[in-house]
Structures are given as structure tokens and as C-alpha cells.
Write a structure and sequence with these properties.
Blueprint lengths: L1 H17 L9 H72 L5 H18 L6 H71 L3 E9 L5 E2 L3 E2 L6 E8 L8 E10 L14 E5 L2 E5 L1 E7 L5 E6 L8 E9 L2 E10 L1
Parallel strand pairs: 3-11
Antiparallel strand pairs: 1-2, 1-4, 4-9, 5-8, 5-10, 6-7, 10-11
Helix pairs in contact: 1-2, 2-3, 2-4
Length: 330
């Protein structure tokens, strides 16, 4: 705009120059006025030229300042982007190290400082130039830290893999010991059962007798119901060097033809465990076992008279059946 005005002034000056040819014919006063006018025009032309140069120089400076400002803004954005990328990578490292059981207290402090510097970069009008320079310098330190932590993660993974392998070996060893212990336990249980079985009493020479109301004793395999008011069981117990001497509780189970256990005279029915199953019994009798092959006699009276059919009599001691016999009611 200023240069265009200068061109117009120069054109006007040329027009004045054309009229100089008539200068000699002018009067003295007119000549002085003409000189004054020319001087003024010259001064104006100088001012115009100076202003034109100043405007051009100002425009160049403004262009440079704008370019510098844009460049600085680009640099700030680049630094901020870099810090943001480092921050995300740092988050990943923190999470992975935590999963692997490593310590992250120091990294959390670095993360806090990094976020503070990111915030400062957003306030570009307030951040001092030296502070901005320091932030730029710390980027390399952050990148070095990330590399160190990446190496640390690799070592932690190796340590965890080794620990996992050792744990697996220990687990297999523990399983092996458990299996051996189970086998030993099974062997011990079998041995215990064998010892228990070997130590169990055995009844022999078992004889079942019917005692009538009048006291008459009959020793047969078949009886009439009226002849059996009381059942007498005679038996001996074999010698057993393993079995300990002492009192033994003999359980007697009388079973009718339908498989029912008969009730004792008082209407009661006892319970005991045999081969892991709870079973009823008719009566119990405590005897003294002295390992001398002595004879035992036990009388059994039931709640109801015997009906026709075959009856079984079973003797148990300490969870083992030690003898049995049967008889028939006609």
C-alpha cells in the first residue's frame, strides 16, 4: 500500500518536471515558489522512501517472528507428545513389574514427576525457557529408564519362570511323596486289618440248645416252638497268641426266615457296625477271654415265641463275626 502511494508521488513529480521547461519564462517570485515546492516534494519523497523501507523491514521481521513462534509451538507439541508416549510406556512397565512381583515405588515417583512436566508444557506462556530446556534434556533420561526397566522385566520373567519350574518340581515331588504316603497308609491299613483279623477271636464247637418252660434241655437241629422258651448257645474260643487277654463283649444276632433280627426279651434291639455298615443285634454278653480255650454259655430270651422256619444265629466280637449256627422250628 505504501509503495503504491510512492509511485503516485513519483508520477506527480514527473508532471512537475515537464513544466520546468517553462521555468525560465517565469518571474523571480514564481521561480522562488517553484524551488520551494520542489524542495518540499524532495523531502516528501525521502520520507516516503524511508517509510517504504521501514514497512518492508517490519514485514520481514514479523514474518520471521511468526515462523519462529510456529516453530517453537511445533517443538513444544513434539516434546509433549514424546512425554505422553513415555508416560504410557511407563504405565505398562509399572503394571507388568507389579504382576511379576517387582517393586514399583521408584517408578511411581518418576511417573508423578513426568505428569507434572506434561502439565507445565501445556502452560507454555508461563514456563521459563531454562525449565523447558531441562524438560527436553530429561526425555533421554526417561528413555534410558524405560530401557532399564525393560531389561529388569526380562530378568523378572526369567526369575518367575525359574520359580514356576521349581514350584512344579516341588509339586511333583510333593505329589510323589503323597502317593508314597498313600501307599504306605494303604499298606499300614492292610497290615492293621491283617493284624486285627489275626487278633480276632474264633468260636468253635458251637452248639444250640432249646430249653423248655419246665427246664428240659434238648440238643437237636429241629425243635417245636413250645420246646423253645430259651435258646442256649454253647461255644469255645480258639487259642490266639496275638489277641490280648481281657473282657470281650459278645454280640448275638438271631435272624428269622424273613431276614429280620429278633428283639430281646425287653423289646430292645442293639446296634453295631460290621464291615462299615450299621447292623442290629438281639443281645450282648460280656465274657472274660484268658486264651485258655474255655467253654462259654450264653442264654438268649426273645420278645416273642419262635414261629416256624429256619433261624440263623451269628456271634460277633469287636466288629468281626466269630461264629454262626442254625436251627429249625417245625
Amino acid at each position: 500500500m505504501i509503495l503504491s502511494n510512492c509511485s503516485q508521488k513519483l508520477l506527480t513529480l514527473q508532471l512537475y518536471s515537464i513544466n520546468l521547461t517553462n521555468f525560465n519564462s517565469m518571474s523571480e517570485i514564481t521561480k522562488r515558489k517553484a524551488f520551494s515546492l520542489l524542495a518540499i516534494i524532495g523531502v516528501l519523497l525521502g520520507i516516503i522512501a524511508f517509510l517504504g523501507y521501514y514497512a518492508y523491514d517490519l514485514k520481514q521481521q514479523v514474518t520471521k517472528d511468526v515462523a519462529a513462534l510456529e516453530n517453537k509451538q511445533q517443538q513444544l507439541e513434539k516434546v509433549y507428545t514424546k512425554l505422553d508416549s513415555i508416560s504410557k510406556a511407563l504405565d505398562e512397565k509399572i503394571q507388568e513389574i507389579q504382576k511379576l512381583g517387582g517393586k514399583v515405588d521408584g517408578l511411581l515417583k518418576v511417573k508423578k514427576q513426568l505428569e507434572k512436566e506434561k502439565y507445565e508444557l501445556k502452560l507454555t506462556k508461563k514456563i521459563p525457557a531454562d525449565r523447558y530446556a531441562k524438560i527436553k534434556e530429561k526425555i533421554q533420561a526417561y528413555e534410558t529408564l524405560l530401557k532399564q526397566k525393560a531389561d529388569e522385566i526380562i530378568e523378572l520373567r526369567k526369575a518367575n519362570e525359574l520359580l514356576s519350574s521349581e514350584n512344579q518340581d516341588l509339586k511333583q515331588h510333593a505329589d510323589s511323596l503323597k502317593n508314597k504316603l498313600s501307599d504306605l497308609s494303604g499298606t499300614a491299613e492292610n497290615l492293621s486289618q491283617k493284624i486285627k483279623s489275626a487278633a480276632g477271636l474264633k468260636a468253635n464247637s458251637l452248639v444250640l440248645q432249646a430249653i423248655a418252660e419246665n427246664g428240659k434241655v434238648r440238643t437237636e437241629t429241629e425243635y417245636k416252638s413250645k420246646h423253645l422258651a430259651l435258646l442256649r448257645i454253647n461255644f469255645k474260643i480258639d487259642d490266639n497268641k496275638i489277641a490280648e487277654k481281657g473282657n470281650r463283649n459278645i454280640l448275638i444276632k438271631i435272624i428269622d426266615a424273613q431276614g429280620n433280627t429278633l428283639l430281646a426279651a425287653d423289646g430292645s434291639l442293639g446296634k453295631f457296625t460290621y464291615a462299615g455298615t450299621e447292623m442290629p443285634y438281639t443281645i450282648s454278653k460280656e465274657v472274660v477271654f484268658d486264651n485258655g480255650g474255655q467253654q462259654y454259655v450264653i442264654d438268649c430270651k426273645t420278645a416273642k415265641p419262635y414261629e416256624s422256619g429256619r433261624y440263623m444265629v451269628e456271634l460277633y466280637c469287636e466288629g468281626i463275626m466269630i461264629g454262626s449256627g442254625n436251627f429249625v422250628i417245625r
